[in-house]
Amino acid sequence: MSGINDFQQVKVVPDRPNAQRLRVLIVDDSAMQRRILSVSLRKQGYEILEADSGQTALALCQNTPPDIVLSDWMMPGMDGLEFCRRFRKMEKAGYGYFILLTSRTDKGDVSHGLDCGADDYLPKPVVFDELRARLSAGERIVQMHRELAEKNRQLSGALSKLQELYEAQEKELTDARQLQQSLVPERFRDFGQGQISLMLRPSGHVGGDLVGFFPSAQDEVLMYAIDVSGHGISSALMTARLAAYLSPGHPAMNLAMQEGPAGIFRASDPHAAVGRINERLLSDMQTDHYATMVLASLNLRTGQLRLCQAGHPHPIIHRASGRMEQLGQGGLPVGLFDGAEFETVETRLDPGDRLWILSDGISESTDRAGDFLGDARTSELVRMLGDMPTNTALDGLMWHLADHAGSEDFGDDISAILWNMQHL
């Protein structure tokens, strides 16, 4: 235990008008030493708590956490080191700066005290000028912890707000994905003469690809595949606009239809329809986006196929004989040049022939080394899938692409149309 001589140069310190009201806990079994310290520190503007033992100090800390602790090392029962260990284990809102008061000067003892959780130590006999300096250092540490805690609180609040915004955006994007997928309500249909299957797989929540079909007359089916440049919401919005241009529910407004005798609407020449879509895009939308597309009209009675390719990958016909044919001359995308000209190519689909219209997300899918699948391997993949039923062949296509890429996450939107001609 310590005595009154443990303090030197005792003098009254004038009030510090700008001092923060920090709470200091003095722990010492000597009432006289606690009194000397508390009187001086109150004069310096501190709020003072006193405890005559480590156990009493722990109870005080539970209800009234101190900012700074001044604890004697040598005390009966629980000494200052054990008190420090337990103090550090307590849950506290802020940081408590711990100073050990000790007459031990051995470096090993001092290191042991710091290892137990003390921030600083003050040798006895206590010099008050040195005590004030140590307390000022403690104040800075406590204040930095407070500022850090406040910044963490503000950051936590900002992160919480960001999380709420992210969740709201995630929900909106999920809803947008469902709306975009609803633009392709029917993924498979058997027309009797043939079967059609569609696939639409955006790389993100929403994408710029779109595929669709609809009967344009009693014996005619119109098919379209669209790939808007870029990804994300702006591309998806342009895709939705293009879907409106090809809406089967409003044939008079459908740019791929024209009115014939007796008010019956039929598919117009594909190149003329694509030309109208190009001009409408340029007049309706101020955007840097453009789109590639294929528009095809198939006569179910004769098998005649009329098709316009506008910058989209070449459609592939897998003949019943096994021969592979590419259609089209490439052509310009829509939405780039006013007055662009397009052409219609014609061929015939016979029973057993399959028409594949694929987006560039397929031929440009990469493997683990970053190499493209390419047109040649895409055609070979189409050949491999030739015996699969129409309604499962596109699932097989996706399985092979995922195997090629080593992942089911693709860097580009993927879309496809498969028409299987059964009989005329």
Structure description:
- This protein has 424 residues and is α/β, with parallel strands linked by helices.
- The protein has 2 domains: 4-151, Rossmann fold, CATH 3.40.50.2300; 183-421, PPM-type phosphatase domain (Phosphatase 2c, domain 1, 4-Layer Sandwich), CATH 3.60.40.10.
- 37% of the residues lie in helices and 25% in strands.
- The chain has helices spanning 31-43, 54-63, 80-89, 107-115, 128-181, 233-245, 270-284, 360-363, 374-384, 390-405, and strands at 7-8, 23-27, 47-51, 68-72, 97-102, 120-123, 126-127, 188-190, 194-201, 209-217, 220-228, 257-259, 265-267, 291-299, 304-310, 316-318, 324-326, 344-348, 354-358, 414-421.
- Strands 8-9-20-19-16-17 form a 6-stranded antiparallel β-sheet. Strands 3-2-4-5-6 form a 5-stranded parallel β-sheet, with helices on both faces. The protein has a 5-stranded antiparallel β-sheet with strand order 10-11-14-15-18.
- Helix 1 (31-43) links the parallel strand 2 and strand 3 (47-51).
- The longest helix is centred in the middle third of the chain and has 54 residues, at 128-181.
Describe the structure in brief.
This protein is an alpha/beta fold. It contains 10 helices and 20 strands. β4, α3 and β5 form a beta-alpha-beta unit.
